[in-house]
Write a structure and sequence with these properties.
Elements (H helix, E strand, L loop, with lengths): L3 E2 L8 E2 L5 H18 L7 H22 L8 H14 L2 E4 L12 E6 L6 E8 L11 E6 L12 H16 L7
Antiparallel strand pairs: 1-2, 3-4, 4-5, 5-6
Helix pairs in contact: 1-4, 2-3
């Protein structure tokens, strides 16, 4: 594993290899998921389950095709899987149900982007059902990852939590009415 718990001071500190783009993104995604869940949102794993089911079907088809002498449609289910990822998931890292006791009827879709060779991390929070009457407007945060990591690669969780919680608060805030 590329990221390790930092040995210095806090044993729960998350450490990333600052030269490895995916290590940085993994630490941030893991932390975002932790923060959103701590706010009372429960993860909606239905999309993951659909992907696993389609993946299992693909494997079964591949096994049958291995021993069946006729030609099979090679990439039909792979195409379906890619279509689901492209249209539904996009850059989503977390789908949630609404928190218990909430007046909104939709959960969240949390998306993140960290382009290769860039230090700008973009985190977006939107409604899981944008057509719902209780859906809020999507909110976005773009910030340099250098704001959240020390020179040794340790995530300064307090700063990151503050930024992510402020973004969640922006999303859940009542829209201001114009007079």
């Amino acid at each position: 594993m590329q990221e390790k718990k930092a040995e210095t001071g806090n044993k729960n500190a998350k450490k990333a290899n600052l030269l490895d783009h995916s290590s940085i993104k993994h630490i941030l995604v893991e932390s975002v998921s932790e923060i959103v869940k701590s706010r009372g949102y429960v993860e909606d794993v239905r999309m993951s389950n659909v992907r696993l089911l389609i993946g299992t079907i693909i494997i079964v088809i591949a096994l049958v095709a291995q021993f069946y002498k006729k030609k099979f449609p090679e990439n039909l289910f792979n195409g379906v899987l890619q279509l689901i990822i492209y249209t539904k998931e996009k850059n989503a890292i977390l789908f949630t149900y609404p928190p218990a006791g909430s007046v909104t009827s939709t959960g969240l879709v949390v998306s993140s982007k960290l382009p290769r060779f860039s230090d700008l991390y973009t985190l977006t929070i939107a409604s899981a059902d944008p057509k719902s009457i209780s859906a809020g407007k999507p909110v976005e945060l773009t910030k340099s990852v250098t704001q959240w990591f020390t020179k040794d690669g340790v995530l300064v969780e307090g700063l990151f939590w503050k930024d992510v919680e402020a973004l969640i608060n922006d999303y859940t805030a009542e829209p201001k009415k114009k007079k």
